[in-house]
Write a structure and sequence with these properties.
By secondary structure, the chain is of the alpha+beta class. Helix content is 50%, strand content 17%.
């Protein structure tokens, strides 16, 4: 994943964890030996060398614990993009120099314990935030995993030899067995099979391919063996093209800064101006000592602990709560943007539908009952591995009607046949009907035409009498099942104020329109993109965004990965492929699309809490900076470093308690 929040680049959670624990261990003795703290609690430590605990341990905390902030601050300065790192750096550098000067007897500004506490709390905030955001394995690695490691290359004599896929060259001939994955783009030279291309095209139905047809790396031969001549390898394959789309879409993502950084940049300029103004005014008043004291106090106090915790606490808590509800937030920017989404684009197959075919209609003739027809078809298909065959077998088993068959034979690209109780039967599609020159009875033909019009696949049951001839006795409609939760997901998004629901699919328009009607899409408001190729899914997102819409893309397949990366927010259905999950900013661990509504509610609640917490941090600064500058010093009211530290602690406690209110947000789907 492209890193969206630049101030974290180069730092891993483990580094912040180590630095936090060591800084915390050193901060405790610094606090306990601070004169200010001893005065507050009325105790004293008369131990030899006690006055050096702060300077020595404080210098270690500054150098070791503060290092990520100092380097981050320098980077922000170099990039002319001030943010949280520069604000923290300024505060700890000024506190360190003032405290060191005090230890050498030049000033009376002992900030050692505030310095140590500030570094420790900021380390805790960054560690929690980075741990919550998590690290992506990378979409391109997941794409590569779709290709088999080895291929069976054929020699001139037609014998197969296993070789690593990387050794394949254009012009090689390879053997792809039934159930095997195609290792490279090519053209079939021998054989015919139905290929599952759903991970590339999004088309849910296996596609028949025969000699002369192109096949794509990563697709699966479902029912037969193929011999393929390799036409593209490595970077030239369609799969690699999808990889490039993902990389391009990710790299073109917005460089928007997160909320805390925008606030920190504003605060940095405010603090710098306030510090400069304070120094100049006190110098003009002829009090050089007060000029230094007040300026240092302003610069240290301008970086409230609450600001360092305001966002990370909300992020850490919202991520933990969402994980418990099966929502994994991988990119905090994605979560922040989700509240502004006005268009949700769903991939159809595997997201709004189960991605598995089921029998949705049975028509029979000649007095054969529906259950009997299913029982015969299930018996004939029992030994087939084809997805449509499995759907027929499952339907027969559900009715308890499946019979026993023997003599199973696969009729490649056409169907299957077997013998049940001494009678030969066949099940297949249009190719089988054509081959047998079979006449379909009118009532079956009408049913089949109606089903096809709604996008279902149609199979026929044929009786093959020993005397010759053929009799078509039943027809079955098989369609991808709409998830029962999908309708509720669409309705809930509408309730949340999402303006437009869009569905995108590689399936034919009749299939898409039928599913949209089933889901309750509103004509003229919601949209359907049908017969869409992988690159066009990416273009569809771009087109929607060009209309000024803020788009969340929800998908589960490899072909969705570029669109997920291109969208304002990518939401992957966790039951989908690794590459889709790696390309998304938010992942739903289950396959329930109602989780998208939960993400929107979480985003809105999190953003509300962030703003409230920043308001507390800002409120602290509005009061603290003028007082630290000595605006009311002439009337005897001045903010001492001690009081500033107390206010800091109070605002931190308020922020922490306010973040806890996030626990009230409902994330799980309402059943």
């Amino acid at each position: 994943m492209a890193h969206a929040h630049g101030h974290h680049a180069g730092h891993d959670p483990e580094q912040f964890r180590r630095r936090f624990w060591l800084s915390l261990a050193l901060t405790v003795p610094i606090v306990l030996t601070s004169h200010m703290v001893m005065d507050w609690f009325g105790y004293s430590l008369d131990v030899p060398g006690v006055r050096w605990v702060g300077p020595v341990l404080g210098s270690v905390v500054f150098g070791y614990g503060g290092w990520p902030f100092l380097t981050g601050g320098l980077r922000e300065l170099r990039d002319r993009a001030p943010g949280m790192m520069l604000l923290i750096s300024m505060a700890i550098v000024v506190a360190y120099l003032a405290s060191a000067a005090t230890s050498l007897g030049l000033f009376d500004l002992d900030f050692w314990w505030e310095l140590a506490a500030l570094v420790t709390i900021m380390l805790l905030g960054h560690w929690q935030e980075m741990r919550a955001v998590g690290q992506a394995r990378g979409a391109l690695g997941a794409l590569a995993a779709l290709l088999p490691d080895d291929a069976e290359r054929l020699d001139d004599a037609g014998r197969s030899h296993p070789v690593p896929v990387a050794e394949l060259r254009v012009g090689d001939r390879v053997l792809i067995r039934s159930g095997g994955r195609v290792p490279a783009d090519g053209r079939i030279v021998e054989g015919a099979a139905e290929l599952d291309e759903s991970m590339i095209t999004g088309e849910s139905r296996p596609v028949p391919r025969t000699a002369g047809d192109r096949v794509v790396a990563g697709t699966v031969a479902t029912d037969s063996t193929l011999r393929v001549r390799v036409e593209a390898v490595g970077a030239d394959t369609a799969l690699a093209g999808i990889g490039r789309l993902v990389a391009e879409a990710q790299s073109s993502g917005g460089r928007a800064q997160v909320l805390a950084d925008r606030f920190a940049a504003l605060l940095f300029y405010l603090a710098a101006l306030a510090g400069l103004a304070t120094f100049v005014v006190w110098l003009l008043l002829g009090d050089a000592d007060q000029a230094v004291v007040r300026t240092v106090t302003v610069l240290v106090i301008a970086c409230p602990h609450a600001l360092g915790l305001a966002i990370p606490l909300v992020v850490a808590l919202s991520t933990a709560l969402s994980a418990r509800a099966g929502i994994l937030v991988k990119d905090r920017l994605a979560l922040e943007r989700m509240r502004t989404v006005d268009t949700v684009l769903f991939d159809k197959t595997g997201t709004l539908t189960t991605g598995r075919h089921a029998v949705t209609g049975v028509a029979t003739t000649g007095g054969l009952g529906e259950d009997a027809a299913l029982g015969l078809a299930g018996a004939v298909e029992a030994d087939s591995e084809h997805p449509l065959a499995r759907a027929l077998v499952a339907a027969a088993d559900a009715k308890g009607a499946r019979r026993r068959a023997h003599g199973f034979r696969s009729l490649t690209g056409r169907g299957v046949r077997a013998t049940v109780d001494g009678v030969d039967w066949a099940v297949g599609g249009p190719a089988l009907l054509r081959e047998r020159d079979a006449r379909v009875p009118d009532e079956l033909a009408r049913a089949a035409e109606d089903w096809s019009g709604r996008g279902a696949a149609v199979l026929h049951l044929l009786r093959l009498p020993a005397t010759g001839g053929v009799e078509v006795v039943a027809a079955f409609a098989l369609a991808d099942q709409v998830r029962p939760e999908a309708r509720a997901a669409v309705a809930e998004l509408r309730d949340l104020g999402v303006r437009k629901i869009v569905m995108i699919t590689g399936d034919a328009r009749p299939v898409a329109e039928a599913v949209a009607a089933d889901l309750g899409f509103r004509p003229g408001v919601d949209e359907v993109f049908a017969e869409v190729l992988p690159a066009d899914k990416d273009k569809a997102v771009t087109e929607l965004r060009s209309r000024g819409l803020t788009v969340a893309m929800v998908g589960d397949g490899v072909n969705d990965a570029p669109a997920l990366a291109r969208a304002d927010v990518g939401v992957a259905i966790g039951a989908g492929t690794d590459v889709a999950i790696e390309s998304a900013g938010v992942v739903l661990a289950g396959s329930d699309p109602r989780g998208v509504g939960g993400v929107i509610r979480l985003s809105r609640a999190s953003y509300r809490k962030m703003r409230q917490n920043l308001a507390w941090a800002a409120g602290y600064n509005v009061v603290a900076i003028p007082l630290a500058a000595g605006v009311l010093a002439r009337v005897g009211i001045a903010l001492s470093p001690a009081l500033g530290a107390l206010l800091m602690s109070a605002s931190t406690v308020v922020v922490a308690l306010n973040a806890q209110l996030l626990r009230r947000v409902r994330l799980a789907p309402a059943d």
